[in-house]
Design a protein that fits this description.
Length: 633
């Protein structure tokens, strides 16, 4: 540790050596503790895949499907021979459309195959009643990752220019002529432009209760006369539908002016361009590389993935939970599962104690918060069951005349049929939202549930070779971070059953909202060296980090071997990160997580124990005046 930097930049003091040596892989925008673990798992899974390819003895049926698909994705000779032919089935469907009426006729088929259309439906849990699932409706995404890019003329010009160059290159590989490409792009961009004023910014999307806008059938019909949305909804779920949850009212209010006969040529070109981008990864090597060019430029990624890695992920992604289950069962045994479960419950108990001792909440609110903690369900390692659609997948292979576009359409259709059939039914809360092989964790407010996949349970987060204080500063803080999401500015609006329900007294809610505002102010406008942090965009994650850090510290203090330095150092270590400038700046605009350096430093500055332990004074950069400190949980 670089001791002289402790008081000026603790993150650098701990990670200085790593930051000097770390190399961002050519096909990545970043390298971090998260990504280092991810790359290790990637190697394990790719080695396993190579082994399975040689010998499939003992593999489950679904793993055999993964291998069959992998044999297709890695066969670049056949892919090159097929050229763009597999895409014709998609292009033909779009080319046949000449009016809105035509789109209306095939909309359900396109939706089931996830062929890009300018708006769409999905079935998710009802925020008002988490035991039911309802239909959400919204518009498609913009070509640029956030509305803020469209506001600044220079940035917009530069990025739309980049999009145009990379997409021109892609479309020419599809065989479109120069004139066709010019027309397609002009019209597609004109349609994108129509969506900009009615699209929510990343900051607006981060407030997810505002995405919940129930609209009765009659109201939807009154606003959307050009296309019968309710009829489409009913065809998709095969039931009568009396309301939609609209994620963006502005879009529905403007629906008839955007989705109109007059604009149909723009819509059609937008669909061709969007789907050419979407399906590029299923075609030749040259086309998949061209298809990723815009994303790489946006994130400052130097090179496309190698053929080998790309082929692995192309088979892994649609079957990730199947491969992840094998990973979890093989590398994360029942002993580790029990260890980690015990640790999570320990963190929940500490959380309860902290709520009991809390000085700014009334007893009534405390009781409700403790009830929410008591009913929180915990999933660790790997799930007990997988979504059933994997069993229905059938991978045919090239020998049976199939290709990667057909395989994708067929898997997507099975999956979407399963998703739409969930309408008006209770959710299965045993199904996870990420594979066990993913280095991550999450809290689901509608399930009041936390999930810790096996992959994150490694160094520097967690290891039996690390001291307890190091583990608390790592995985302990991650666990408490996820628990804190139950009480962040979004989670706090949901009750213990996962439904939207105000369980706060007015006074306590006001106090909480003030604290959330203080947290916004603490991070807002803080310079990172590549731009400033957006306090509003990152408030939920900063509340979770702050609560997580405090709770993990409390848990560490209870142990006989508690060591503050080990705790603080590992907290800073898990946030080590080196990214391309482009990627860092992109995340400042779109990521609800704050910049890593602030997650490490600002959260420590905001902690009295840290200030006292290192004797941080007014003139030190790591200093934060006590009256500026924000402690919520
Ligand atoms: Zn989080």
């Amino acid at each position: 540790m670089k001791k002289e930097q402790i008081k000026t930049n603790f993150y650098e003091a701990v990670n200085g050596e790593w930051l000097e040596q770390a190399v961002i892989p050519g096909d990545q925008p970043t390298i971090s503790a998260f990504l280092e673990l991810h790359l290790g798992i990637e190697k394990t899974l790719m080695d396993l895949t190579a082994k399975w390819e040689q010998d499939q003895t003992g593999l489950s049926d679904n793993l055999k499907k993964f291998i069959t698909l992998y044999q297709m994705t890695k066969d670049f000779d056949t892919r090159d021979k097929l050229g763009t032919k597999p895409f014709e089935v998609v292009l033909d469907k779009i080319n046949q459309l000449n009016t809105l009426k035509d789109l209306e006729e095939v909309f359900c088929d396109l939706t089931l195959e996830s062929i890009e259309t300018p708006f769409g439906f999905s079935v998710m849990q009802d925020f008002m009643n988490s035991n039911n699932q309802v239909l959400y409706f919204g518009a498609s995404d913009l070509f640029l990752p956030d509305t803020s890019y469209y506001k600044d003329e220079n940035t917009k010009k530069q990025l739309i220019g980049l999009f145009t160059t990379t997409t021109t290159q892609l479309l020419s590989l599809y065989g479109f002529s120069k004139e066709e490409i010019e027309k397609l792009l002009t019209e597609a961009l004109a349609f994108d432009e129509l969506l900009v004023p009615v699209t929510k910014s990343s900051v607006e999307k981060a407030d997810y209760v505002k995405l919940y806008n129930p609209l009765k059938k009659e109201a939807v019909q009154a606003l959307t006369k050009n296309l019968d949305l309710m009829a489409q909804a009913e065809r998709l779920v095969k039931q009568t539908v009396d309301q939609l949850i609209v994620t963006n009212l502005d879009f529905v209010n403007a629906f008839d002016s955007i989705i109109s006969e007059e604009n149909f040529p723009l819509i059609k070109s937008w669909m061709i361009v969007s789907n050419a981008i979407r399906f590029a990864s299923d075609l030749t090597d040259e086309i998949r590389i061209a298809g990723g060019a815009f994303g790489r430029a946006l994130s400052g990624i130097k090179e496309a993935r190698s053929k080998e890695k790309f082929a692995f992920y192309q088979a892994y992604n649609p079957l990730s939970q199947v491969v992840g289950l094998h990973y979890g069962e093989t590398y994360f045994g029942p002993t580790a599962k029990n260890d980690v479960k015990t640790m999570v419950h320990e963190m929940i108990d500490v959380y309860k104690e902290r709520i009991t001792e809390n000085t700014w909440l009334n007893e009534k609110t405390k009781e409700k918060a403790i009830k929410k903690l008591s009913t929180l369900t915990v999933h660790v390692g790997y799930p007990d069951e997988l979504p059933p659609y994997y069993d229905a997948y059938q991978i045919k292979g090239y020998e049976q005349g199939s290709d990667l576009v057909q395989e994708r359409l067929s898997m997507t259709k099975i999956r979407n049929q399963y998703d739409f059939a969930k309408y008006n039914k209770a959710p299965n809360k045993n199904i996870w939202g990420m594979p066990a092989s993913m280095v991550n964790a999450y809290y689901s407010p509608t399930n009041n549930q936390i999930v810790f996949p096996a992959a994150i349970l490694q160094r520097p987060y967690y290891s039996l070779d690390q001291t307890p204080s190091e583990n608390y500063g790592g995985i302990g803080a991650v666990m408490a971070h996820e628990i804190s999401h139950a009480f962040d500015n979004n989670g706090a609006k949901f009750d213990e059953t996962g439904s939207l329900n105000n369980w706060w007294t007015d006074q306590d809610l006001e106090a909480f909202n003030q604290k959330a505002k203080d947290m916004i102010a603490l991070f807002d406008g803080v310079e990172t060296g590549y731009g400033v942090c957006n306090g509003e965009l990152t408030v939920s994650e900063n509340i979770a980090d702050s609560g997580g850090l405090r709770c993990a510290l409390e848990a560490s203090k209870k142990g006989s071997t508690h060591n503050l330095e080990e705790f603080f150092k590992n907290w800073a270590r898990v946030w080590r990160n080196k990214s391309s400038l482009e990627y860092s700046q992109l995340l400042l605009r779109v990521d609800v997580h704050g910049p890593s350096i602030l997650r490490a430093n600002m959260q420590l500055s905001n902690l009295l124990e840290f200030q006292d332990f290192y004797g941080i004074g007014e003139n030190d950069q790591m200093y934060l005046a006590k009256d500026k400190m924000v402690s919520i949980w």
